[in-house]
């Protein structure tokens, strides 16, 4: 028994990512075709070279056919995966294991979501027939995550105005980054005061504290590490993949205080163990985290070990996680600037790690930590909400560890 | 000795100022307020609240042998509404639970039937009075419920008021009527029925007093209920009881709750009456009925925990008339751009009756952890199938964190959501109702209340919500 990790056994050698946004003229199939096409081109191969597929979507298709039909794949294995908002990362994780196991030489992870066809605001999701006797089917995602804000503020002695300043700063930072990203849904900086005074959606959260709603797709090609340089001279090696589904006790257990995601702490510790990381704050060059709502990013800074407990709000305020900070977080603009097409987001995060570690991010978005010699990036992807969630953490790097 | 052994009243939290109706519609101003069922209440949910108030004494629920739910505004036709009340009260499955639904007079019917039943009987009177905008019924009506348990004397649940006598007179009379599904009642010219009711009331009261060998001036509390206001006033004036014995009808503050009005008036009298006093309750409508009761020494120690007067006093500031119209479905408002709410599905709802209706959680026999909702696997020690039932409807709690959901689909946005940590353990996240945003704060004290959370796809969903504690500490945790 044991979790062993697959550090440096597989590498990503090609990626694709569509622009994220309100793609009124493009279907989920269109987005898939585009992301997959870009990925195979970047790896210098054709679709026929891929042996197996892991396809992540929450609700934009069912079964492997949703991918094989769009691409008319000739009798290839396609596994459709779903793990709430971490679906895209889950597709990647399984593709990596498939290659590491020796079962396949070349695997592809693809994620897609088409949210803007429903005509609804927010996520529409899928529900099972229920008894009408719990709040899960009633509360919206922003309200669910907004539960963090008053609890965090109360625990660490922030008043409502101070807390609002902190989360406003997070939204501002991610929009600054997104303004430098041609693939983002929102490509404009937003003044602090406009963020702060935006109409309230839930609790303390205004419109700008919420990620957008968008369509998008992203894809990655995974091969054995020893084969990686046959495809590219700048492969991205997988150092750690960890995933946990929590015990779903936070909405039942008064011990849980809504200032942390224990699932994130567990998945981060496991990822750091696999990757051999002892001080993520100084070892990582960048982190792409699940900023579905601004208080989420705040709490994640502590759960991922980037800030001490109760200190993240100060680190946010001081710019520690800005593009030019000590540890840039969401340099691509995050869910805040990209929106959150559920099946695609995890792979979109990885796409930014891919660009940054390969030195392909535009100069005005390139993190300075790389020049300081750091070569590791983290992606974090979360599904569910405070009290019960699934959490994924990966660490990837541009160099093989000795 | 048999008689009344418990009672409880429920006046919903919300009020509507009659002056607001007048100001909005440009009609003649009328004084006072009426009680208004919340957007998440109906006659079934209010009946549950009243019955919970009546059944607070230990050991009372297992004694109840039958349950009658009387209402002129049943939440469902065909399907029994009393079974939802039965489920919410976690009564024994052999208890007969039936509706007396349709006519306002069914309130009298339930009371009289309960009073003369051989088995301990819970009679719940509940009504939600509607009328067309600008009409008398709209401003004069009220919403509310009251519950009474009649039975024999027992230690712990003694008779608090003996039934001295009762009498009923039935008369086929086109005074007030409503076709099924119609939004409002119709009434004949007021003066037509006035004299008839005075005569019928005199017959019923006279017969009851004769049976009890009492004269009218022996009555200490004279309560007259009915939707024919002129007739009620005339009966109060002419029945021959001492003027100081005539009780008010509460309509200035809460309006006339129709089917439930006799119950609310009787509960209000019981809240105040001294031992050894005689109560005459007269109910007018398609005839007349009289209950003559005499309070016992046991009354002061067994009054309802939430007096009618206190419920009136703690009512909300009036809701805007537009809000009232919206809640009653008389103002069709733009829905949020969100998926329609899901109705409850019959099989999962039935599987979870104990939880959904009774708010019965589970407790791990191995480690004592409470589980809301009930679980098979312990969240703490992970023991499997080592759970016992844990009733939670009476347990108060404290808000751990909260939010105001302005995006959620609710009949009355925004949706207030609280995470409740219960006294003695356990946590549950649910909606907060009868509250404003100012009530949703960390540390707020809350209690549970049974509500109709939503009606979706033609199905009412009943479940529990939290509400602010407004009546001091509730029953202590076991």
Please write out the topology:
The complex is a heterodimer of chains A (402) and B (478).
Chain A: E1 10-17, H1 28-43, E2 52-56, H2 65-71, E3 78-81, H3 87-100, E4 106-113, H4 141-146, H5 148-156, H6 160-178, H7 192-196, E5 200-202, E6 205-206, E7 216-224, E8 236-245, H8 262-275, H9 280-283, E9 284-288, H10 294-303, H11 312-318, H12 334-338, H13 342-357, E10 376-385, E11 388-397
Parallel strand pairs in A: 2-3, 2-4, 9-10
Antiparallel strand pairs in A: 1-7, 1-8, 4-7, 5-6, 8-11, 10-11
Helix pairs in contact in A: 1-2, 3-13, 6-10, 6-11
Chain B: E1 2-10, E2 14-17, H1 18-25, E3 33-36, H2 43-54, E4 66-71, H3 82-88, E5 96-101, H4 106-115, E6 121-128, H5 136-140, E7 143-152, E8 161-170, E9 176-177, E10 186-187, H6 190-212, E11 221-225, H7 229-238, H8 251-254, H9 261-272, E12 278-284, E13 287-295, H10 308-313, H11 321-327, H12 346-351, H13 353-356, E14 360-364, E15 370-371, E16 387-391, E17 397-405, E18 415-422, E19 427-431, E20 445-456, E21 459-468
Parallel strand pairs in B: 4-5, 4-6, 11-12
Antiparallel strand pairs in B: 1-7, 1-8, 2-3, 6-7, 8-13, 9-10, 12-13, 14-15, 14-16, 17-18, 17-20, 18-19, 20-21
Helix pairs in contact in B: 2-3, 6-7
């Amino acid at each position: 028994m044991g979790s062993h990790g697959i550090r440096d056994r597989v590498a990503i050698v090609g990626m694709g990512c569509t622009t994220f946004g309100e793609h009124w003229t493009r279907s989920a199939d269109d987005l898939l075709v585009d992301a997959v096409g870009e990925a195979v081109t970047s790896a210098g191969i054709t679709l026929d070279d891929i042996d197996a597929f892991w396809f992540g979507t929450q609700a934009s298709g069912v079964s492997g056919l949703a991918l094989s039909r769009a691409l008319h794949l000739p009798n290839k294995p396609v596994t459709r995966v779903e793990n709430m908002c971490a679906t895209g990362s889950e597709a990647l994780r399984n593709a990596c294991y498939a290659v590491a196991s020796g079962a396949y030489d070349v695997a592809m992870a693809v994620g897609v979501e088409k949210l803007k066809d429903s005509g609804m605001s927010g996520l529409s999701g899928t529900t099972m027939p229920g008894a009408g006797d719990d709040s899960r089917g009633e509360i919206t995602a922003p309200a669910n995550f907004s539960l963090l804000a008053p609890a965090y503020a109360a625990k660490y002695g922030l008043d409502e105005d101070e807390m609002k300043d902190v989360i406003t700063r997070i939204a501002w930072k991610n929009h600054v980054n997104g303004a430098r990203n041609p693939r983002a849904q929102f490509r404009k900086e937003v003044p602090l005061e406009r963020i702060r005074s935006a109409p309230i959606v839930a609790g303390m959260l205004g419109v700008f504290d919420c990620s957008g709603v968008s369509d998008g797709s992203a894809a990655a090609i995974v091969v054995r590490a020893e084969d990686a340089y046959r495809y590219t001279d700048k492969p991205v090696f997988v150092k750690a993949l960890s995933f946990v589904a929590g015990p779903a006790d936070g909405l039942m257990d008064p011990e849980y205080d809504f200032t942390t995601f224990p699932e994130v702490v567990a998945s981060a510790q496991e990822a750091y163990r696999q990757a051999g990381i002892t001080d993520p704050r100084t070892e990582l060059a960048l982190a792409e985290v699940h900023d579905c709502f601004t208080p989420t990013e705040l709490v994640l800074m502590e759960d991922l070990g980037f800030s001490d407990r109760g200190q993240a709000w100060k680190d946010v305020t001081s710019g520690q996680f800005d593009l030019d900070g000590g540890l840039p977080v969401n340099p691509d603009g995050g869910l805040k600037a990209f929106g959150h097409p559920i099946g695609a987001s995890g792979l979109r995060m990885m796409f930014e790690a891919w660009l940054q570690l390969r030195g392909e991010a535009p100069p005005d978005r390139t993190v300075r930590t790389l020049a300081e010699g750091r070569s590791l990036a983290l992606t974090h992807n979360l599904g569910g909400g405070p009290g019960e969630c699934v959490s994924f953490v990966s660490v990837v790097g541009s160099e093989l560890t000795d | 000795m048999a008689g009344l052994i418990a009672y409880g009243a429920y006046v919903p939290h919300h009020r509507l100022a009659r002056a607001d109706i007048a100001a909005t519609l440009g009609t003649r101003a009328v004084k006072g307020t009426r009680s208004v069922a919340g957007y998440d209440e109906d006659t079934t949910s209010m009946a549950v609240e009243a019955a919970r108030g009546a059944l607070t004494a230990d050991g009372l629920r297992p004694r109840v042998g039958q349950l009658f739910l009387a209402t002129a505004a049943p939440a469902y036709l065909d399907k029994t509404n009393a079974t939802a009340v039965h489920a919410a009260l976690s009564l024994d499955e052999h208890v007969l639970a039936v509706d007396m639904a349709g006519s306002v007079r069914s309130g009298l019917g339930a009371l009289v039937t309960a009073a003369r039943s051989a088995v301990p009987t819970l009679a719940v009177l509940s009504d939600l009075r509607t009328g067309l905008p600008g009409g008398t019924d709209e401003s004069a009506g009220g919403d509310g419920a009251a519950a009474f348990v009649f039975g024999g004397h027992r230690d712990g649940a003694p008779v608090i008021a003996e039934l001295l006598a009762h009498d009923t007179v039935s008369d086929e009379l086109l005074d007030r009527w409503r076709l099924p599904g119609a939004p409002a009642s119709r009434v004949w010219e007021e003066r037509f029925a006035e004299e008839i009711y005075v005569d019928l009331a005199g017959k019923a009261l006279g017969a009851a007093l004769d049976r009890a060998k009492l004269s009218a001036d022996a009555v200490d509390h004279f309560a007259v209920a009915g939707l024919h206001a002129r007739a009620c006033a005339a009966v109060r004036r002419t029945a021959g009881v001492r003027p100081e014995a005539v009780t008010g009808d509460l309509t200035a503050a809460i309006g006339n709750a129709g089917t439930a009005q006799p119950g609310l008036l009787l509960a209000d009298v019981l809240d105040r009456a001294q031992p050894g006093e005689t109560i005459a309750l007269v109910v007018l409508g398609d005839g007349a009925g009289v209950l003559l009761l005499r309070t016992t020494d046991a009354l002061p120690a067994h009054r309802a925990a939430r007096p009618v007067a206190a419920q009136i006093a703690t009512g909300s500031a009036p809701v805007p008339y537009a809000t009232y119209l919206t809640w009653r479905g008389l103002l069709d408002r733009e829905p949020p751009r969100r998926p329609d709410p899901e109705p409850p599905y019959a099989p999962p709802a039935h599987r979870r009756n104990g939880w959904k209706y009774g708010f019965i959680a589970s407790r791990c026999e191995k480690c004592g952890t409470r589980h809301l909702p009930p679980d098979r696997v312990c969240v703490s020690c992970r023991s499997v199938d080592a759970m016992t039932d844990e009733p939670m409807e009476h347990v108060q709690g404290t808000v751990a964190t909260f939010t105001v959901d302005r995006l959620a689909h609710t009949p009355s946005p925004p949706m207030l959501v609280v995470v409740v940590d219960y006294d003695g353990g356990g946590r549950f996240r649910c909606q907060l109702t009868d509250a404003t945003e100012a009530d949703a704060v960390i540390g707020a004290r809350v209690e549970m209340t049974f509500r109709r959370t939503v009606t979706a796809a033609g199905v009412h969903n009943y479940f529990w919500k939290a509400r602010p504690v407004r009546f001091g500490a509730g029953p202590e945790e076991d």
